[in-house]
Amino acid sequence: MSKIKVEELTKIFGKKPKRALDMLNQQKSKDEILKETNMTVGVNKASFEVEHGEIFVIMGLSGSGKSTLVRLLNRLIEPTDGSVWIDGEDLAKMDEKKLREVRRSKMSMVFQKFGLFPFRTIIENVEYGLEVQGIPKQERRAKSQTSLELVGLKGYEDKYPNELSGGMQQRVGLARALANDPDVLLMDEAFSALDPLIRKDMQDELLDLQEQMKKTIIFITHDLDEALRIGDRIMIMKDGAIIQIGTPEEILTSPENEYVERFVEDVDRSKVFTAQHVMMRPEAVNLEKDGPRVALQRMKEAGISSIFVTKRNKELLGIVHADEVSKLVKENINSLEGIVQKNVPQVTSETPLNDLMEIASTSPVPIAVVDDNKLKGIIVRGAVLAALSGSEVNFNGSITEASIS
User: Fold this and answer.
1) How confident is the model at residue 391 (pLDDT cuts 50, 70, 90)?
2) Nearest partner of 125 among 167, 76, 162, judged by Cα
3) Close Cβ partners of 296 (under 8 Å, ≥ 6 residues apart)
4) Residue 354's CB: how many other CB atoms inside 10 A?
5) Element (H or E) spanning 261, and its range?
6) Residue 386's pLDDT band (boundaries 50, 70, 90)?
7) DSSP three-state, residue 307
8) Of all helices (H) and strands (E), which one includes residue 32?
9) Beta strands, E only, 266-382
10) Where does 32-183 show beta strands of DSSP type E?
11) What is the pTM for the complete model shown?
12) Nearest CA to 316 among 285, 289, 292, 339?
């Protein structure tokens, strides 16, 4: 079961929303409804699911409905139609008491504006939500201390907001949300007010925290680079409607329509794609059982002039070249061990393309993709260039001599 399930969620602002809802059912556009009824479609029949422990990014331009949608998820705004389910419970059917309990125990929200109390210390700001709930002082202080340590603000407990930078103040807001230990974090343009360098630091901070916490995070942004960087999946909205949902790679490589294409056309692919997106199936021989003749045969079949050498458990040892292997065959030597070139360029599957370009341009052999000492794939120069240009590449095939050159 998904953590959050949204079904046909709709919000119409105006005095007679049922009339506008009927027009939506007749496939009328947001502009047509505004012109005829003077009512605004905030969210138009949104349906999606968010998995446990996922960073689900909702993005769109101003007026796309993303901020309205996130407020519908915890009923800060009442929906006109549709349902929101969390852990199988329908928020629309909850009374005020049950809804307050869910907001306190399962959901916390982080806003673009930090909303800190200027005359409270940092730790007093963090524990405010727990104080409202009536949590005893000693318990709320301990929880708040833990939250501040999580976001890297240990030692700042007795400072005041005006003594902290913008990025540090946003960390306080995040710590306040985490103090409840919620299952779900709703983050509405949480980093938008920060300077670019601080914003990147906060993105890194969030990803590091997520490694530890495994929370379900719904993150609202208008910045595609931010969405691609932190999102497990991205949902793009326009005029209150969902245009496309997909992984960062799916959004970049298979945009749903011209609107999404315009979104992604200026993205720096070198910072988004990683080695795993361009690596190919490696041709390799096992040093423990394969000799020079097997290596030559594999190279001949694949049309390549060198081949990687591994142990039986796929641990990378290095690479051998056809001319040296041929000499071993002529000399009737049955082991490759003496000619294995160990100085092979290596990256991990998470290495950004931006870091691969210089290696690929200077290396005379393919780059080895190695995770946990095991050979996972190889990268040739042509695959890197194709990915940067946006061309389609068959990343699962073996290397050909043409692709190496």
Assistant:
1) low
2) 162
3) 322, 325, 326, 329
4) 15
5) helix 258-264
6) low
7) strand
8) helix 30-37
9) 284-286, 306-310, 316-321, 346-347, 367-371, 374-379
10) 40-50, 55-59, 81-86, 89-90, 107-110
11) 0.69
12) 285
